[in-house]
Amino acid sequence: MNDPIIAINGLNKTYEGGFQALTHIDLTIQRGEIFALLGPNGAGKTTLISVVCGLVNPTAGHVLVDGFDNITHYRQARELIGLVPQELTNEAFETVWNTVSFSRGLFGKALTQRISKKCSSR
């Protein structure tokens, strides 16, 4: 079996003030797998995504992104993650490809030839 693209082990996050947003999360996502994170408000979805992306530090546990620890090898891990926040809208009915292009530009990333071709064909 291939190594997972994301491996989360024993992840906990307790915010200042004592609010525990994540309690012992174990999750493995395989390369090419489509994964949806669903739950009610306050379930910890945003906290989990923020920890995986390196925006929030966990209280305990660790996250590997394609084998790179997202804290000790944060540059390599972050290079592999593309986060397009829900609030990022430059036009209400923009295409996904144009939104990805815009988001990559915010982080100084050029479009690959494969992505450029898809954006221009839409």
TrEMBL record:
SUPFAM superfamilies: P-loop containing nucleoside triphosphate hydrolases (SSF52540)
Pfam families noted in UniProt: ABC_tran (PF00005)
Gene3D superfamilies in the cross-refs: P-loop containing nucleotide triphosphate hydrolases
InterPro entries: ABC_transporter-like_ATP-bd, ABC_transporter_ATP-binding, P-loop_NTPase
Residue ranges of every copy of the ABC transporter domain listed in the record: 22-99
Keyword tags: ATP-binding, Nucleotide-binding, Transport
Keyword Transport: yes
PANTHER family reported in the protein's UniProt record: ABC TRANSPORTER ATP-BINDING PROTEIN
Descriptive protein name: ABC transporter domain-containing protein
Source organism: Vreelandella olivaria
